């Protein structure tokens, strides 16, 4: 296969240099590498597409994919690939689809970042295996791919138009995963393809703005692709999710433990913004429906198989 690596950056700093060095050290060399600089022009030690402004991750990634040929390996600039990563992805290739590497934390702790993302009932996601030990970890089938590192077949990319640029940053990976899942494309875990990730190097692991964008885009993606029964239940399931995360956070556990003090207000603002433009995404849902291969029951079953579990949330 022909493999094009697209790296989106806005800093073009030492982390990007390390990412590029790891690509040069691969046992299976990429056929093409393109760095997309989503900022003012920056010097880059690789072929680069200079966008001149920070246009958001979704638009930058789309521009990089459009400027390359072959299957698309998307990488954050704060990732570093183990030498056999590309060879493992190629060995796992069984035709057009989505292939999820094993992503580990780059802090030397021996802990997992994720093996993809798992769905919660309201369309929110959480990183599978996050903060668990890498040693002995099993790669469960992910529900959604992680935008930090993922191989997407060109055929899948072109069929969906890639990321929805209205998402900006955060949640664009979940939206595309759901749209692909509706078409019958289930992410494949590739545990032998190992990627180290400096989690939160760009936005921090948690911030109020990040929470707002995640919540806004979650509602958008849910309206567009979730089964109708899950969509109707959204007020209840979202309330329950907030309650569970708040309870875990109060005990110093789970994703709610490290949220900033203004996260609750940010989540509610994002929720309100998502609801406010619900009509737009429901119209997109109707436009997408003729291409769906999974009906409501099949989609519910697929979401259940790719769900996040209690052990993912409660660490």
Task: Spell out the blueprint of helices and strands.
Elements: E1 3-9, H1 14-24, E2 32-37, E3 48-50, H2 57-66, E4 71-76, E5 79-81, H3 85-92, E6 98-105, E7 112-114, E8 117-119, E9 125-127, E10 149-152, H4 154-160, H5 172-182, E11 188-197, H6 208-225, H7 228-232, H8 234-250, H9 263-276, H10 278-288, H11 296-305, H12 310-313
Parallel strand pairs: 1-2, 1-4, 2-3, 6-11
Antiparallel strand pairs: 4-10, 5-11, 6-7, 6-10, 8-9
What would the principal axes of the Cα set say about the shape?
globular
Residue share in helix: 40-55%
CATH class of the largest domain: Alpha Beta
Provide the β-strand percentage band. 15-25%
In whole angstroms, how far apart are the ends?
39 Å
Structure, explained:
- The chain has 315 residues and is of the alpha/beta class.
- The protein folds into 2 domains: 3-197, Alpha-Beta Complex (Spore Coat Polysaccharide Biosynthesis Protein SpsA, Chain A), CATH 3.90.550.60; 208-289, no CATH class.
- Helices cover 40% and strands 18% of the residues.
- It has 12 helices and 11 strands.
- It has helices at residues 14-24, 57-66, 85-92, 154-160, 172-182, 208-225, 228-232, 234-250, 263-276, 278-288, 296-305, 310-313, and strands at residues 3-9, 32-37, 48-50, 71-76, 79-81, 98-105, 112-114, 117-119, 125-127, 149-152, 188-197.
- Strands 1, 2, 3, 4, 5, 6, 7, 10 and 11 form a 9-stranded mixed beta sheet that branches. A two-stranded antiparallel sheet has the order 8-9.
- A hairpin with a 6-residue loop joins strand 6 (98-105) and strand 7.
- The chain is globular, with a radius of gyration of 18 Å.
- The N and C termini lie far apart (39 Å).
- The relative contact order is 0.14.
């Amino acid at each position: 296969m022909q493999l094009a690596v697209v790296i989106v950056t806005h800093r073009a700093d030492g982390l990007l240099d390390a990412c590029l060095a790891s690509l040069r050290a691969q046992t299976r060399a990429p056929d093409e590498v393109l760095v997309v600089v989503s900022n003012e022009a920056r010097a880059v030690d690789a072929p680069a597409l200079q966008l001149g402004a920070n246009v958001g991750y979704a638009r930058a990634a789309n521009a990089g994919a459009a400027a390359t040929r072959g299957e698309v390996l998307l990488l954050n600039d704060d990732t570093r690939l183990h030498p056999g990563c590309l060879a493992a992805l190629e060995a796992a290739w069984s035709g057009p689809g989505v292939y999820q590497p094993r992503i580990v934390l780059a802090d030397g702790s021996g802990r997992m970042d994720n093996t993809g993302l798992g769905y919660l009932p309201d369309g929110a996601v959480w990183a599978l295996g996050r903060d668990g030990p890498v040693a002995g970890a099993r790669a469960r089938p992910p529900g959604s791919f992680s935008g930090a590192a993922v191989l997407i077949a060109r055929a899948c990319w072109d069929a969906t138009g890639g990321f929805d640029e209205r998402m900006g940053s955060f949640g664009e990976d979940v939206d595309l995963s759901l749209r692909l899942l509706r078409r019958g494309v289930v992410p494949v875990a590739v545990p032998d393809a190992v990627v180290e990730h400096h989690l939160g190097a760009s936005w921090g692991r948690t911030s109020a703005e990040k929470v707002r964008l995640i919540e806004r885009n979650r509602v958008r993606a849910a309206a567009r692709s979730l089964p109708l029964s899950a969509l109707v239940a959204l007020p209840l399931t979202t309330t329950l999710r907030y309650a569970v995360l708040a309870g875990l956070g109060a005990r110093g556990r789970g994703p709610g433990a490290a949220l900033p003090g203004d996260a609750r207000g940010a989540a509610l603002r994002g929720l309100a913004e998502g609801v406010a433009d619900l009509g737009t995404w429901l119209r997109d849902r109707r436009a997408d429906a003729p291409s769906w291969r999974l009906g409501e029951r099949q989609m519910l079953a697929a979401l259940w198989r790719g769900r996040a579990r209690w052990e993912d949330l409660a660490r």
